[in-house]
Amino acid sequence: NAGVTQTPKFQVLKTGQSMTLQCAQDMNHEYMSWYRQDPGMGLRLIHYSVGAGITDQGEVPNGYNVSRSTTEDFPLRLLSAAPSQTSVYFCASSPRLGGLLSILAKNIQYFGAGTRLSVL
Amino acid sequence: KQEVTQIPAALSVPEGENLVLNCSFTDSAIYNLQWFRQDPGKGLTSLLLIQSSQREQTSGRLNASLDKSSGRSTLYIAASQPGDSATYLCAVPGGGADGLTFGKGTHLIIQP
Questions:
Q1: Count of C-beta atoms within a 10 Å radius of residue A108
Q2: Which residues of B touch A102 (CB under 8 A)?
Q3: Nearest CA to B28 among B100, B97, B93?
Q4: Which of A58, A103, A114 is closest, CB to CB, to B99?
Q5: CB A118 within 8 A of CB A12
Q6: If both were cysteines, with which of A38, A108, B87, B95 could B38 make a disulfide (CB 3.0 to 4.6 Å apart)?
Q7: Which of A61, A23, A68, A66 is nearest to A44 (CA)?
Q8: Best mutation site among B44, B57, B92 for testing chain A: the one with the most A CBs within 10 Å?
Q9: What tens digit of pLDDT does each residue of B17-55 get?
Q10: Cα→Cα distances B44→A64, A108, B87, Å
Q11: Which 8-state DSSP code applies to residue B55?
Q12: Cα A59 to Cα A21: distance, rounded to the nearest angstrom
């Protein structure tokens, strides 16, 4: 059971370049999300998805796009990289139950190992 | 907006000591709280999840408590070992459907 897999582990980009960070999970989780982790800022939510075909913005969505065509995959696209996007990016997934059950659910989130991105 | 604060930001103690990490949150309307461990250059690993109906959760040498009314949680580590050295993060539900709001973490070093 691989869990949550992120690729690549490291990436260096030049300002203005575009790229896609890949995230895949094999646990059939409905909920997937992307966070960025910056020194002194903690983890902040970028985008999230509650199921295939459904995505929404988190706290810091500007400069990023996402799509969810399958349950397993949730790629994060940088449209035109900027130095401010230098960060460590984490993908996470969890099961999701609807309605009252979600209040009681032990929806532990599983994180990938991260992608370290530098934008020069 | 939910805010999560962790104290102390860093802690260095000799091996064998019992220690307490603190987490506070501003909005007490949470349905659970999670403690994570992060090793350098690695992802996050969930250690304990406490549901709002619980006051404590234990896993091995770790014990987490939750007091919703006061907006506080503590992570107690008994008989600390060098392998416990890591950053410990506290997180509560906040934004983004099932998204989490994280504290900035406590960087823990256990000296052999």
A1: 14
A2: 98
A3: B93
A4: A58
A5: yes
A6: B87
A7: A61
A8: B44
A9: 999 999 999 998 888 899 999 998 888 999 999 988 888
A10: 22, 12, 9
A11: S
A12: 19
Grade residue A99 by pLDDT with cuts at 50, 70 and 90: very low
Across chain B, mean pLDDT equals: 93
> Rounded to the nearest 5°, which phi and psi values hold at A64?
-130, 145
Give the residue on A whose Cα is nearest the Cα of B95. Answer: A58
A63 vs A80: CA distance, rounded Å = 7
What Cα–Cα distance (Å) separates residue A119 from each residue in A37, A83, B40?
15, 5, 21
**CB B14, CB B111: distance < 8 Å:** yes
Q: Is A26 within 8 Å of A2 (Cβ atoms)?
A: yes
Please report, as a single letter, which amino acid is at residue A104.
Answer: L
- pLDDT category at A98 given cuts 50, 70, 90 is low
DSSP state letters, chain A: ---EEEE-SEEEE-TT--EEEEEEESS--SEEEEEEEETTTEEEEEEEEEETTEEEE-SS-TTEEE--SSSSB--EEESS--GGG-EEEEEEEE----THHHHH-----EE---EEEEE-
* β-sheet bridge partners, residue A38: A42
